Amino acid sequence: MSSSFMTLPRELRQRILLLSLPPVIQPAIVPYFSIPAQNLLHISRIIRQDMYWVINTYSPCFYLNSPSHLDVFLSSLNKDFRILSFDYAPKFAHASLNIFHDAEVETMQWTCYCRGRGMHTHDELVDAWAAAVSSLPSQMRTILLDITPAPGPMRSNKPEWVPGFIQDRRISQKFVGEHGGVLLRLIQCIHERFGDGVAIQLNGQLSEKSRSALDAFIDLSTAAGMDVSFVGDMLAVQPRVPRPRIWKAVKKLAPVRCRWIAEENRLVYLPAKEGQERLVAGMRDVNWSVDTQKLWTRLANQDEAWVVALLPKFGQFKMDGHLYEMDFLPMDNRQRALVHNMAKDLGYESQAVGEEPERFVRIEKYADNPLIRD
C-alpha cells in the first residue's frame, strides 16, 4: 500500500496527507496525524519531504467553548508545536464559537417564558462572546457560530439526549426567535471588527421546527447588510407517536383525582373509589410491553368494549389475595394472545386450555401463594 501511495503525483500525496489531519480540533488538543499517515511518514523519506507543504498549508478550525478561555488559547498560539518531528505554528484563521456551551438545562428550556419576568436569559452568554470578538486576531477568515440550543456538558457526556432536547416544543419553537436580537448584535460586532473579510456562518444542530425562525433571522441579518448563512444540520421532526390506547382506557376507568388543601398549601391525591375504579387503579403503573399495546390497539379497533372489560377482570385477580387461578371465557387465538401478553406483563403464568372453539385462557399466580412459595 505504501509503495502505491508513493507512486502518486506529489500534489495528490500532499493533499491526502493534509486530509489525514483533523479539520476541526479542540484548543487543548495538539493536531495529530492518523495512524496510517504516521506509519507512512516513518517509513518514507519522500513522504516526509512532502510534509513541509502540508505543515505550511494546514489551517484547522478551532472549536472554542467559552470566551473566558479565549485569552489562554490565544497565548498558546505563540508556542510552536511538533507534529511528529515537524515544527508547527498554528494558524488561527478559522474558529467555531459554541455560543450556549455554558447554559444550564433548566434555564435553556424556560427561556422562552422568562422575558419580562426577571428570570434568567442567555443574553449575557452571547454578550460575552461579543466582548471577546476584539481579541480575535486580524487574520481570521471564517467564524462559525454554533447556536445548538443544548448545554455543552450534555453534548459532551450525553450526546444521545441532544436530539430529543432540541426537538422539545419550547426549544424548537421559541429559542431561536427569542435570541435573534442578541445574536444579531454579536454578528454586528464581528462585522465591525473584520468587515467583509470574514465569512460569518451559523452552524450546529436545530430542529426543523425552528426553520421559520431561522429564516426570519437570516433575512433580518441580510437587511442589516450582513451576509449570514446556516451550514449546520436541521433535525427532521419525528412523527408524534400517539399514546397507546391501553393507557387511555386505564386512565378513563381509574382517573387520578386530587384536591388542593389551601390551609396546608399542598396537593393531596384522593384514593380510588370502590368498585371498578379501585380494581383498575392498581394497573396505572404497569409497564405494558410493545406487543401488548399493539394487540390491544388492533383488537380495540374491532371491539373496544371487549378489551376494556379485561382491565377490571385482571384488576380483580390482582387485588384478591385469595384468588390464585382464574379462567376467561372461550375466545379466538388473537384474543387469547392479548390475554397471554397482559398476564405476562403483570407477572402471572398463563396457559390455553381446551379445544377449539371452546379453548380459553387460564391465568395463575401460584408464585404469590404463601402455601406453595415455601
TrEMBL record:
SUPFAM superfamilies: R3H domain (SSF82708). InterPro entries: R3H_dom, R3H_dom_sf. Residues 301-367 form the R3H domain. It comes from Lophium mytilinum. One of its GO terms (molecular function) is nucleic acid binding. This is R3H domain-containing protein. It comes from the Eukaryota.
